[in-house]
Write a structure and sequence with these properties.
eleven-stranded mixed β-sheet, six-stranded antiparallel β-sheet, 45% strand, globular
């Protein structure tokens, strides 16, 4: 297992330990997943994963036909890395690829990558609600990619991205604080919404192009996955992705 994600409350920390997972059956009725790295598919095109990498405590997600809801969360941590990253995604994550995906795909061969998310938030929890978009110099379907692009649409408590704030930018009709760093396994560029939102539709390539301008990523690199979910530090029951869509054109 290898470190996948990176976030911190007061220090640099990783936030998404992934391991190879067997692809579970397609979800029709609601499906409860409590296995640490359990997953299933929805809509015939996306994977939903539990991805409880940072805690031995029980986490269960209830997978619907369009997203998922955290049903049980027994872990808690006051700082450092989060407990998990339950998420829905298009593309490949540790050899578990979504049905029919055209990812990995070279950035130079992507015209647009529209995506949309609808979240449900709850009080009394410490979390971030974020996209996690991965890129690599090779068409990699397994292991850690070299560039992690995060888009934080909301966060609560004393949590912050890896590294330090390097500026602000307007992308996709919103203003963002930009954070840049490295978690020891990969580079991380994070865009933190200056005002939280539960619903967002945008072109992923607007952010990818900004990453290109700030980092060593160039058009020869590959987009490997578009993921969206939650990183909880404590609480989280009731947090939900109501719906998610993504495509790469």
């Amino acid at each position: 297992m290898k470190l996948r994600h990176a976030l911190s409350a007061v220090m640099l920390a990783a936030a998404g330990l992934a391991a190879p997972v067997a692809v579970a059956p397609v979800a029709h009725a609601d499906t409860l997943i409590c296995d640490q790295y359990g997953s299933t598919t929805i809509g015939g095109r996306y994977v939903v994963m539990n991805n409880r990498w940072g805690s031995s405590a029980t986490q269960c997600i209830n997978v619907t036909g369009s997203g998922f809801r955290i049903q049980t969360q027994q872990g808690s941590t006051s700082g450092g890395a989060p407990l998990s990253y339950p998420a829905v995604y298009l593309g490949c994550h540790y050899t578990n690829c979504s049905p029919g995906t055209n990812l990995p795909r070279q950035l130079s061969r992507i015209g647009s990558a529209p995506s949309s998310i609808s979240y449900n938030y709850v009080g009394g929890s410490v979390f971030d609600a974020s996209y996690d978009i991965w890129m690599d110099p090779t068409a990699k379907t397994n292991g850690v990619n070299q560039m992690e692009l995060m888009i934080w649409l909301n966060h609560t408590g004393n949590v912050q991205p890896v590294g330090g704030k390097v500026g602000t930018v307007n992308l996709g009709g919103r203003n963002w604080d930009v954070w840049q760093g490295n978690n020891g396994g990969n580079d991380v560029l994070s865009y933190v919404a200056q005002s939280p939102t539960a619903n967002y539709s945008f072109n992923v390539m607007d952010f990818v192009n900004n990453v290109d301008a700030r980092t060593r990523v160039d058009r020869s690199w590959y987009l490997t996955s578009i993921q969206a979910g939650f990183e909880p530090w404590s609480g989280g029951v009731g947090l939900a992705v109501n719906s998610f869509s993504a495509s790469v054109n």
